[in-house]
């Protein structure tokens, strides 16, 4: 899952991003509305976490623009104003959810995961393939009863491949969905991650390489 976090409180934004990355999410961070619009015009996000009260172009304006652009990205608004009128107003802008500061980080994660499951196409909270079970909510991966000790990036890559349901996923798409904007697109990070993931998954292989195309879940 790829998430955009936009909040002018830099410590807050960076702390949220660090926590979400530990949950195997790819996270881009910006500190104003203009930065959010710039990234939304370049990358496809599953969820955007927007602070309503950013100076300059506000989270409300970004949300309104996203609604007008008919983006598939789900929107979670953050604000210090927790009144019913504020929540109704925020949802009326086209936001999918609303969270009042201060909040418990576990609740933020749960809400983002729920919004991710409502993205297009909808994603099941538990993905399975021939004895392999990936539980996104619990952040666990098991194969034939054996718990897999996956890194956040390995988990993210496996999630993207399982979500594709057998469709070939290019290295470029994996890079877009599982890494953030600071990753060197010419690096071998995808190839190396798939290699270590295969080793942990064991036999029989469940990730097939499609020459000059990418990877998919299924027999070679």
From TrEMBL:
GO cellular component, one term: cytosol
InterPro entries (alphabetical): CheY-like_superfamily, OmpR/PhoB-type_DNA-bd, Sig_transdc_resp-reg_receiver, WalR-like, WH-like_DNA-bd_sf
Keyword terms, alphabetized: DNA-binding, Phosphoprotein
Ranges annotated as DNA-binding: 124-219
Signal peptide (residue range): none
Domain spans labelled Response regulatory: 2-116
PROSITE patterns per the UniProt record, alphabetical: OMPR_PHOB, RESPONSE_REGULATORY
Residues recorded as bearing 4-aspartylphosphate in the entry: 51
Pfam family, one: Response_reg
GO MF terms, alphabetically ordered: phosphorelay response regulator activity; transcription cis-regulatory region binding
Domain OmpR/PhoB-type: 124-219
Family annotation (PANTHER family): REGULATOR OF RPOS, TRANSCRIPTIONAL REGULATORY PROTEIN CUTR
Protein name, UniProt field: Response regulator transcription factor
UniProt organism field: Dactylosporangium aurantiacum
């Amino acid at each position: 899952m790829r998430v955009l976090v936009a909040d002018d409180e830099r410590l807050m934004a960076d702390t949220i991003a660090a926590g979400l990355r530990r949950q195997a999410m790819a996270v881009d961070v910006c500190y104003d509305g203009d930065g959010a619009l710039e990234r939304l015009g370049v990358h496809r996000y599953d969820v955007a976490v927007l602070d309503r009260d950013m100076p300059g172009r506000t989270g409300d304006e970004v949300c309104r623009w996203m609604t007008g652009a008919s983006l598939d990205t789900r929107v979670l608004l953050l604000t210090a104003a927790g009144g019913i009128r504020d929540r109704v107003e925020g949802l009326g802008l086209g936001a999918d959810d609303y969270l009042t500061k201060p909040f418990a980080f576990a609740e933020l994660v749960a809400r983002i995961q729920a919004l991710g499951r409502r993205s297009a196409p909808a994603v099941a909270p538990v993905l399975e393939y021939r004895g392999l079970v990936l539980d996104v909510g619990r952040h666990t991966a098991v194969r034939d009863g054996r718990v897999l000790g996956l890194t956040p990036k390995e988990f993210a890559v496996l999630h993207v491949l399982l979500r594709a349901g057998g469709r070939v996923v290019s290295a470029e798409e994996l890079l877009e969905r599982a890494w953030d904007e600071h990753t060197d697109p010419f690096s071998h990070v995808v190839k190396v991650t798939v290699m270590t993931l295969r080793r942990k998954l064991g036999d029989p292989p469940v990730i097939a390489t499609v020459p000059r195309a990418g990877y998919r879940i299924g027999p070679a």
